[in-house]
Specification:
The complex is a heterodimer of chains A (227) and B (344).
Chain A lengths: L1 E5 L2 H8 L4 E7 L2 H4 L5 H17 L5 E7 L5 H4 L11 E4 L3 H10 L5 E3 L1 E11 L2 E6 L15 H4 L16 E2 L2 E5 L1 H11 L39
Parallel strand pairs in A: 2-3, 2-4, 4-5
Antiparallel strand pairs in A: 1-6, 6-7, 8-9
Chain B lengths: L11 H7 L4 E6 L7 H11 L5 E4 L11 H11 L3 E6 L5 H13 L4 E5 L20 H13 L17 E6 L9 H11 L3 E6 L3 H13 L7 E6 L5 H10 L7 H10 L13 H27 L4 E6 L8 H7 L20
Parallel strand pairs in B: 1-2, 1-8, 2-3, 3-4, 4-5, 5-6, 6-7, 7-8
Helix pairs in contact in B: 2-3, 3-4, 6-7, 9-10, 10-11
The chains are: A alpha/beta (227), B alpha/beta (344).
Chain lengths: 227, 344
């Protein structure tokens, strides 16, 4: 899932600025599951904004609504009727959600209430960790199902650096060394020989380095152009 | 095409190793400013006492004069440089173009490293690169040298950059069982020499070298063991506790403490400036003594072709170390000699 966390109320207030009528838009998908921008969080942020601006002496009119998926335009249509009554949308979606709103409603000002952090999973109640960097060319098949692109601080492809100690990364004792994990897993499965091959430089074109990415599936398109 | 006489680069370091001598390299830390005289002064401390001097590349992710810039000064000074290059700060384009420039400036030895993460340094908010890793860098630069191709596979005409290419290994970093194999991968990638992380625990290092030798890696590469003088018991404990892959036996720390015993138990205020100076000298003397013993033990270990002395910001220590270990004067191997000695 996409994991995000809320911006501070101070930052949110700065982003909202002088707008009087605020619509907080939550999202029912990833950010609901990571407790950052679901219906519950949208209601809380709306209440916080109301109370805080009231205490500041300039109360704002804040309402909230949560759509099932902020990252798809068709789910945004349900908020269209409300737009005429608000000055600004505070999106509690991920970065994709914020942009979906901006693209779908060209004349509506939208600001983000979250910082989108990474693609990951919950490792325990209240803890999420990064797992995928969306490099566009999955190598999990040669690394025992553990991604060094996302989980090694240096995205190394040929084994650990010299900073691996007691299972953790040199930059922080809370970060497991991805290559120690890979080594242990391959070792336990009797597949260490996989690590003996030298992996060539990665083709980063499939990653962000190749420019903004897009997938076109002609088999799925509805308005196929005649050749 | 360059006449290579069978050498990769024909650098002094390569010639000394090929001639079968126990080699000495020493680290020279470039300054955090643009003063070339710092390099010149340090060069004078090292000249004659090592076969080549390593110039670190923004070590510990702190901005310093570039290893190539400092290396060009060393060439002028008549001290052979080994330029270090890390994967943190440059992508494959920048690496290759800088190496073409480095060769044109007369630099002949290159050490390829991953590089410390930028969170350690003075620009922790920087974006890192890590486009390629150190093993891929070795492959890239040996490809430029031996096949005259850029990393992309495109051939180029004219002078190829002929470096004597090295890599590093930290024998006691984790996973420890993988380290000899990782070293083997670097050799397979094309590294001709290896410099290791600082070694203080000779017994542990012998086990590492046994494994390296059992894999036959020592016959394909010159391995220079990393050694360095301890400055104080505090520094020793700090390194032991904070630097991954550095093992310092307790008896060594006790020896350092014993050297400072005459001043032990006194608070900072009770010690005069002379006291502190004398204590520092006593610690440093013991540190140098320990290091000399380490070098002598290294000479007896199968597969060790030399030492890499890392006297961090203490280049003055190299002279007494090299002299004390009986490694002075350094051999002079004429350019034209072709010797086919195998690594020790």
């Amino acid at each position: 899932m996409i994991v995000a966390e809320q911006k501070s109320l101070d930052e949110i207030k700065k982003l909202v600025g002088s707008a009087q009528k605020v619509l907080v838009v939550g999202c029912g998908t990833c950010v609901t599951v990571c407790f950052a921008g679901g219906a519950r969080e949208a209601a809380i942020v709306a209440a916080e904004l109301r109370m805080s601006t009231k205490l500041d002496g300039s109360p704002k009119e804040v309402t909230d609504v949560t759509v099932q998926r902020q990252c798809e335009w068709e789910y945004l249509d349900e908020i269209a009727p409300k737009l005429g009554q608000v000055d600004i949308i505070l999106s509690l979606g991920c970065g994709v959600g914020v942009q979906a709103i901006a693209e779908h409603f060209p004349s509506t000002w939208v600001v983000p209430g979250l910082n989108t952090k990474f693609m990951g999973l919950p490792t325990e109640q209240g803890v999420w960790a990064e797992r995928c960097a969306a490099c566009g060319d999955c190598i999990l098949g040669i690394t025992g199902g553990i991604c060094p692109i996302a989980r090694c601080s240096k995205s190394l492809l040929n084994g650990p650096c010299g900073g691996s100690l007691d299972g953790h990364c040199e930059i922080n004792a809370d970060i497991p060394c991805a290559w120690q994990l890979i080594y242990d897993r391959l070792n336990s499965m009797g597949k260490l020989e996989v690590l003996m091959d030298i992996q060539p430089p990665k083709n980063w074109q499939t990653s962000r380095d190749g420019g903004p990415r897009k997938i076109v599936r002609e088999d799925l398109r509805l308005d196929k152009k005649e050749e | 095409m360059t006449n290579t006489n069978g050498y990769h680069s024909g650098s002094n370091l390569e010639r000394v190793l090929r001639a079968g001598h126990f080699a000495v390299t020493a680290e020279l830390g470039p300054p955090q400013n643009a003063d070339g005289d710092v390099i010149r002064k340090k060069a004078q401390l090292l000249k004659g006492y090592c076969d080549a001097a390593n110039l670190t590349d923004n070590q510990t992710a702190i901005v310093r004069m570039s290893s190539i810039g400092a290396g060009a000064i060393l060439v002028q000074e008549g001290l052979e440089p080994v330029i270090q290059m890390v994967c943190r700060d440059r992508n494959r384009l920048a690496m290759q173009s800088d190496l073409l420039g480095a060769y044109a400036l007369g630099i002949r030895n290159l050490l390829c490293l991953t590089g410390d993460h930028q969170t350690f340094g003075n620009h922790p908010t920087a974006k890192n690169v890590f486009d390629i890793d150190s093993m891929q860098m070795v492959q890239m630069v040996t490809g430029m040298r031996d096949k005259r191709v850029f990393q992309c596979g495109e051939e180029f005409k004219g002078q190829e950059p002929r470096f004597f290419v090295g890599a590093v290994e930290s024998p006691f970093a984790h996973p420890i069982d993988f380290r000899p194999y990782r070293l083997g991968k670097k050799v397979k990638a094309g590294a001709s020499f290896i410099q290791t992380q600082l070694v203080f625990d000779i017994e542990a290092f012998k086990k590492f070298m046994d494994k390296v030798c059992s894999l036959g890696i020592h016959e394909q590469v010159y391995l220079l063991a990393g050694v360095g003088p301890l400055k104080s018991p505090t520094m020793a404990k700090y390194m032991r506790d904070n630097v991954p892959g550095i093992l310092i036996p307790n008896e060594m720390i006790k020896r350092m403490e014993k050297a400072g015993e005459p001043w032990a138990g006194k608070s900072k205020d009770e010690l005069t400036a002379e006291d502190k100076k004398a204590r520092t000298a006593a610690w440093q003397g013991e540190g140098i003594k320990i290091c000399i013993e380490l070098i002598q033990q290294m000479r007896e270990i199968k597969g060790v072709s030399g030492v890499h002395v890392m006297a961090i910001e203490w280049e003055k220590a190299v002279k007494p170390l090299v002299e004390g270990a009986g490694l002075y004067p350094r051999p002079v191997i004429p350019d034209a000699s072709i010797v086919s000695a195998q690594p020790a």
